[in-house]
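Appendix B. One record, verbatim.
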Amino acid sequence: MAVTEQQIPSVRITSPQGKWILLTTVLGSSMAMLDSTVVNVALPRIGRDLDASLAALQWTVNAYMVTLAGLILLGGSLGDRFGRRKVFVLGVVWFATASLLCGLAPTPGVLIAARALQGIGGALLTPGSLALIQASFHPDDRARAVGLWSGFGGIGAAVGPFLGGWLVDGPGWRWVFLLNVPLALVCAPIAVRHVPESGDGRAHGRFDVLGAALGALALALVTYALIEARGGSLAVVVTAVAGVAAGIAFVYVEKRRPDPMMPLGIFASRQFTAVNLVTLCVYAAFGGFFFLTALQLQVVAGYSALQAGTALLPTTALMLLFSARSGALAERIGPRIPLTVGPLLCAAGLLLMLRVGKDASYAADVLPALLVMGAGMVTLVAPLTATVLASVDTSQAGLASGINNAAARAAGLIAVAALPLLAGMGPEAYRSADAFAAAFRRAMPICAGVLVVGAVLAFATVRRPAPDCCRPECRMHGSVTAPPLEPSRGTTKSDAGPAS
């Protein structure tokens, strides 16, 4: 018999079943988190082996992000309606199947299509893993379970670039994707055997499939126009106009639907709107930085894939070690200072990356920039999440977190599409150390400028939340691609995340 939201979950974290549930949710979410961090390191080798242009490499990253960002809000609603375990397992199997297609892809086009399919699987399993914890564990153990889930997920994010580099230099870049298959073979049977089914018996009405489709279509069309804009053809102009039209249609549909995927009323909170604007700035800069830096270290500095992946570890390690303390500090002094200082520190780190060129010294050139960048991320990410939750009613915590997560991912994919264009990178720039280095030197100040805009927005708009506001349960952060998802709160239908 399926467990519904009206029943109190009874699984204790110290029980054998509790440990199995935690294991399978960590494995599931780690698949998606690993994939979002390891692929950048593999891009130069993918380009050489498949004879891919820079645009194809951009799409290798963005095809995944388009479907994930466009559908992640809908993913939680599907679990509420059809069963969270069922949708989670479907997401794991889907993700692994798409990963297998990525690993076997003979051409860039096949790889890009498989990556888009991967994003659909990620949209099912990412919110599903957290929903399973919320629906399974006893309320007294839920916060600890969420903390362990986010902590182990952060470790997975930290290991990702190192593991990706080792695979690229060893068995080959295809194993970056093929690794997900054995993980799924472990994860899915454990979920079926040990995780209780749950759902929201009150979930009813139609799914906002049209809204999800329009959102993903708008992102895809705008991304295509930005990536292909170098040609300046009529097709690019038409695609750009169509992308804007799809975005307007998305807003219109969400405003008119009785059960929208993204209720526009949540943006009535000025604080929520302001913090999401800061999120767009911050994660656009992060997305562009990590995409280009993985290439810069290999193409220009001459690092191997393993060296490049290992080089990026300090930022994630700092977040894992200090994000909880940063969140506690922000609770005492308020979020305005951390959300102003954090982006400025990140901007300084990006400008320090201008020292990274041919034969760059890791200790003297790369590490100082990444330490400053990591310090900025530590300073801002936890307060950003807390401020998002504090700006809405407790019953909308899951929805607010999902919107903020999707906004960050959308910002990252737009940055990956637009930054090479703005920096003047040609379609073969990554094959020439001199050409790529010149474009990288133009790109980092652009990213730093976007971070400064985010800092100014935060200083001008962010205010101290009310003392009784909603607090985050995910205290430890490790992901560099998006803010952590937060579980929904309360017992009303709106708590379950996006409306279904």
